[in-house]
Design goal:
Elements lengths: L4 H10 L6 H13 L3 E2 H10 L6 H13 L3 E5 L5 E5 L7 E5 L5 E4 L2 H13 L10 E4 L17
Helix pairs in contact: 2-3, 2-4, 3-4
């Protein structure tokens, strides 16, 4: 299913909410950016377009988009959440560079099969998951300390 303003409007309607002009502006900008977008970056993009929207409106709209299942929210450990389209794209996981902040998406069927096996073995019904690996990208590897294996 493709995510567009019509999809957002329908999800709002299901929750008894309306597609107000500020919500439309925020959702439209987020839909047009793609990738991983932080709230502050979204606010700056709207400001540059000459369509400033209040910070509270942006955060509330992001919460609605996330709660509606249209966007995923990720925290890569910096304390700043980023948002990416969830509906209409295949599941994927992330590599996050702790030096430059690069986010690399990847898909690995073997990891997915292993997770399925673990949930079956534990009689657990998974609703969703997020797999993130933190480290250094190719450009930043020279800044990396000695490798320390940590399993959290």
């Amino acid at each position: 299913m493709k995510v567009d303003l019509g999809t957002f409007q329908e999800r709002l309607r299901q929750r008894g909410l309306k597609l107000t002009k500020p919500r439309r502006l925020v959702a439209g900008k987020l839909l047009s950016t793609g990738g991983h977008v932080a709230a502050d970056d979204l606010i700056e993009l709207l400001r540059r377009d000459g369509t400033p929207v209040g910070r509270a409106t942006v955060y509330r709209t992001l919460a609605i988009l996330r709660g509606s299942g249209l966007f995923d929210e990720h925290d890569f450990g910096s304390g700043h959440k980023v948002y990416e389209r969830a509906l209409g794209r295949p599941h994927h996981d992330h590599l996050f560079c702790v030096s430059c902040g690069a986010v690399i998406e990847f898909r690995e069927p073997r990891i997915e099969r292993l997770q399925d096996e673990v949930t079956r073995r534990h009689h657990f019904t998974a609703m969703y998951h997020s797999h993130k690996i933190f480290g250094y990208c190719r450009r930043c590897q020279s800044k990396a300390p000695q490798r320390v294996e940590r399993h959290a």
